[in-house]
Amino acid sequence: MAADAGHLRLRALRASDEGAFAEAHRQLLAEDSEFGIHYEPGMPWDTYLQAVTDQAAGLNLPEGWVRNTRLVADVDGTLVGRTSIRHELNDFLLHYGGHIGYAVIPDQRRRGHATEILRQSIEIAHAIGVERVLVTCDEVNIGSVRAIEACGGRLENVVPLPPDDVPRRRYWID
């Protein structure tokens, strides 16, 4: 782990995070990813914060979603990434998505943040009752492969992720 990642902490979104969050979301959208799941630029920030709070409680879930806890990764007041910890698995998550989805902002990569985000997310998953944690990543995402394996992930298999049949690695962590 890089020295920077040692001060990383996962925390709930705050009202004051709006600008940094919007910028992180913009950067990840440029890579065909997203920082804020179901976040639309320009939407009222308090509406988004309420949706995140509701989903952690299992309320007002979009169709096909499960209860999930979304947190941002903060290093000394700077947002460096995010995590989504799913409290259970539906069919899609069991095959492709897993219990934990995380991302690191592009200019914050290669500092150990992904591994630390995942490590803390696994602890939270265990604390909410998830005994065996499933984490997945695209086969070509070497950074995620390394983070998952550093956190004790054991590869179960590689499956094609429709519709493009991108190979998806599935790891279990006890």
Question: Layout of SSEs?
Answer:
Layout: E1 8-11, H1 18-29, H2 45-56, E2 68-75, E3 78-86, H3 91-97, E4 100-104, H4 113-127, E5 133-138, H5 142-150, E6 154-161, E7 166-173
Helix pairs in contact: 4-5
How would you portray this structure in words?
The longest helix has 15 residues, at 113-127. The chain has five helices and seven strands. The model has no long low-confidence stretch (mean pLDDT 91). The chain has one domain (3-173): Gcn5-related N-acetyltransferase (GNAT) (Aminopeptidase, 3-Layer(aba) Sandwich). With 174 residues, it is of the alpha+beta class. The chain has helices at residues 18-29, 45-56, 91-97, 113-127, 142-150, and strands at 8-11, 68-75, 78-86, 100-104, 133-138, 154-161, 166-173. Helix 4 (113-127) crosses helix 5 (142-150).
Ends distance:
21 Å
**What's the main sheet like?**
4 strands, antiparallel
- The overall pLDDT average reads 91
Summarize the helix and strand pattern as letters.
EHHEEHEHEHEE
- What level of helicity do the residues show? 25-40%
| Tally of alpha and pi helices | 5
User: Which architecture does the CATH hierarchy give at level 2?
Assistant: 3-Layer(aba) Sandwich
Radius of gyration: 15 Å
CATH homology-level superfamily = Gcn5-related N-acetyltransferase (GNAT)
